[in-house]
Specification:
- By secondary structure, the chain is α+β, with helices and mostly antiparallel strands.
- It has 1 helix and 5 strands; from the N terminus they run αβββββ.
Amino acid sequence: GGAHGIYVFEDAAERAELMAMFEKYEVDFVLQGHYHAYVDQEINGVRYITSGSFTDGLLDEGLRHFLVFKVLGPEVRVEMVPVLRGGPVEYRDGEI
């Protein structure tokens, strides 16, 4: 849902001020963490990406994962790579 991407800023005034600043300065991506899930959403031209913590503890929702960013000139691709709990972590260009 929409609440999770910029959810961390519980203070509505702070959230509005930050989002207005990101929009004013034409920020492409806002990368956030700690929420234990993957959220990728765009609001007013700003892409908010939240990556969950890489933990063996309880997850709020979603899968244990990491993100891979591929920058190809002006194009940026984001890939969420799920990781099985207790399994080895090995990344080889799109495969674990």
